[in-house]
Amino acid sequence: MENGTMRRSGRVLLIVLTVLVVLAGAGAAVVLRLDTRAKEQHEMLSRAILARETWLSDTRVRLTENGAELGSYTLDDLGLVESARSYITVGLTQLDLLPQEEFEALGLRERISWSLGGRGSAQNVTLDAASLDTAKPEADANRVERTAPQDARVSFEDGKFTLQAETGGNTLRDGAVHDAIAQALTGVVNMGQEPQTIEAELTDIDCYEVPEITEENTAFDIQESFEDALDGFALTINFEKAAPQLNFETPTQTISQEQAQALVTLNADGTVMVDEAGVRALADDWAALYDIPDTKYQFKSEVDGYVPIQFLDVSYKVDCDALTKELSERLRTLDAGEVVPEIVCCRNGEPFDIKDTYIEVDITNQKVTFYKDGERIVFTDVVTGLPDGHQTITGLFYTYYKATDIWLDGPDYHVFVKYWVSMTDLYGLHDASWRTNFGGDYYLYAGSHGCVNTPEEAMKTIYDNVTDGIPILSYYHERPVQEEPEETTDAQGALE
Is 493 a member of any domain? Predict the structure, then answer.
C-alpha cells in the first residue's frame, strides 16, 4: 500500500517535473523568439528612420520653366524639413526609436509590448504650404529677362493710329513659384525609395500675368484717340535759342491747340495729314518779324559775350524751308514741345558764321583765344601794336602759313622767334622772348609794331594745332588812345 502510494507520488512528481521542465524550455524559447524578433524589429525601424532622414536631406526640388532649369533646392532650402518630418512616420510606439541598451534592460512583458508595437510603413508626404519658403527660387526665377503683357490699345506711331491687340508676356504672377512647387510636392512617397529629384515646372500651372484690357472686353475709337492726342497740344518756336545774340523783343511763337486742330486732319486709314501750305504761311509770317537784313555780325567773344564786329556786314534770315519741314513733321507725329528754328547768317549773299574752330584776337582786352572743334585750347594775355601808328590790324583773316625758328626784320628791329603764325604777309602771331609782361594796358605804351606778341608756351600750342584756313578774328570795341608811361621796365617793348 505504501509502496503503491509512493510509486504514484513518484510518477506525479516526475510528471510535474517533466511539465516544469517543458514549461521552462517553452518559456525560454518564447523569450528567445521575442528577443530575436524585437532585435530584428529594432534594426528594421532603425533602417526606416535612417531612410527617412536620408530622404529628407537628399531629396531636391528642381524648378524649371519650359524645360529650362531655374534652380535646384533641398527641402531645407524651402523650409520644409520639419514640416515633412512631422508627417512622415514609421509606426513607432514612441516618437523616437528606443536605443538598444534600453531595450535590453526591459523585462519580458515590456519587450513583448515594444515588439508588437513596431511597424515600418511607406506613406505619402503631406506638406504644410504655410511653411513653404520660396525666397530662393523666386530670386532665381526673376533673374530671367521678362516682358510684361501689353493691354490692347490704340497705338500711334509714325503719324498713324492703329488698333493693337493685347499681347502676352513672361512676367510671373504673384505666387506662381510657390504654387508650382507646392503642386509638385503633393503626393510624394518617401519610405522605401531613394532620395528623389522632384520636378516643378512653372508652365504646369497658370504662371504668367495676363493683359487686363483686351479687344473683347473693351471698345476702341481711333477718332477719339486722335482728339485726345490734340488735347493741350502746343508747339513753342524758340527764336531766342536760335539766335540769342539778336535780342528779339518777342523771343518765342506758339502753335496752339486750336491752330494745330486747323492744320491736321485724320484720314480714314488712321494717318494724320498736315496742311503744309498753312504751316509755310506761319513760317513766312514769323520770318517777317525775325529776319534782320542789314546789321553787324554778332560775335561771341570770350570775355564780353556777344559784341558787334563793325567791319563785318551781315544779314540774319529765318530758314523758312527748314522750319516748315520740321513743324510739319512735328504736327504729323503730334510731337508737342519746343522747336528751335535755324536762323542763317549771311555775308555777301553766302552763309557765314564763326563757330567751332577759330582764333580770337581781342585787342580791347588784350586776349587771344583759340577754339578747336569746340574746345578752348588757348586763352592767354598778349601784347598787340601801339595804338598810334603801329596798331594791330583788324579784320577777318585765315591762316595760311606758319614757321619755326625764324628772324623778323624791320626798319629798327631784328629779332628771333620760335613760332610764327600768319594773319597777313606782314602781320601774325608769334612768341616774344624779350617780353616779361603781357596783357593789361601794357600795349598802350610798350606795344608791338603790329604783330600779336604771345607767351611762348601758348604760342607753341597755337603753332602745333593750326592748320590752313582757320579764321582769325582781330577786333576792338573802341579804338584806344596811346599813353606815354612815366617809365618802362621792358627795353624791347616796342619791338615787333
Answer: no
User: Is residue 237 helix, strand or coil?
Assistant: strand
Cα-flanking dihedrals φ and ψ of residue 81, to 5°? -60, -50
Pair 211, 237 in one domain? no
In angstroms, the Cα distances linking 227 to 90, 167, 232, 263, 374 are 74, 25, 10, 13, 44
Q: Are residues 324 and 364 in the same domain?
A: no
Same domain, 228 and 212: no
Complete edge-to-edge strand list for the sheet that includes strand 375-381: 375-381, 367-372, 358-362, 471-475, 395-398
Distance, in Å, from the CA atom of 313 to the CA atom of 290, rounded to the nearest integer, reads 17
CA 122 to chain centre: 55
Q: Which of 175, 265, 167, 256 is nearest to 215 (CA)?
A: 167
Co-location of 216 and 249 in the same domain: no
258: in domain? yes
What CA–CA distance (Å, rounded) separates 181 from 198? 9
Instruction: Compute the average pLDDT of residues 33-37.
Output: 61
How many CB atoms lie under 10 A from the CB of residue 114?
A: 20
Cα gap 363→385, rounded to integer Å: 9
Same domain? 52 vs 109: yes
The answer on 311 and 426 residing in a single domain is: no
The mean of the pLDDT values for the chain is: 84
Q: Give the whole-angstrom CA distance, residue 338 versus residue 465.
A: 38
pLDDT of 351-371, one tens digit each? 999 999 999 999 999 999 999
What are phi and psi for residue 51, nearest 5 degrees? -60, -40
SS3 27: helix
Q: Residue 117: what pLDDT?
A: 53
| Domain membership of residue 235 as a residue range | 222-351
The C-alpha atoms of residue 197 and residue 200 are separated, in whole angstroms, by 10
**Number of structural domains the chain divides into:** 3
115 by Cβ neighbours in 10 Å (0-12 / 13-18 / 19+) ranks as buried
